[in-house]
Specification:
Number of strands: 2
Structural class: alpha+beta
Number of helices: 3
Radius of gyration: 17 Å
Helix content: 25-40%
Shape: elongated
Distance between the termini: 30 Å
Length: 87
């Protein structure tokens, strides 16, 4: 399992890479090969729309990587002066 966490000022992106598991379900669907049951509404009905604050989702120390995709987004969406002050 590989977990990548990208923290921004107003949200966090989490990417989880793993092989399919029995009863696996989530935002990308349930990996059963039936795309018709992977709509947003179907997923919310199965797993809910929010994570409870009391749920401990991550443990250990995060390894933060600045990916090429993040660099491209920064170059597109952040003013050069703001980028310089953040580095």
């Amino acid at each position: 399992v590989k977990v990548s966490v990208y923290q921004w000022n107003n949200y966090v992106d989490v990417q989880i890479e793993m092989s399919p598991q029995p009863l696996q379900d989530g935002v990308c669907g349930n990996v059963n090969g039936n795309h018709a049951d992977d709509t947003t509404q179907a997923i919310i009905q199965r797993v809910g729309a929010r994570v409870r604050p009391s749920d401990n989702l991550l443990s250990g120390k995060a390894i933060i990587m600045f990916t090429p995709q993040m660099a491209k987004m920064m170059a597109t969406e952040c003013a050069t002066t703001r980028q310089a002050s953040a580095q």
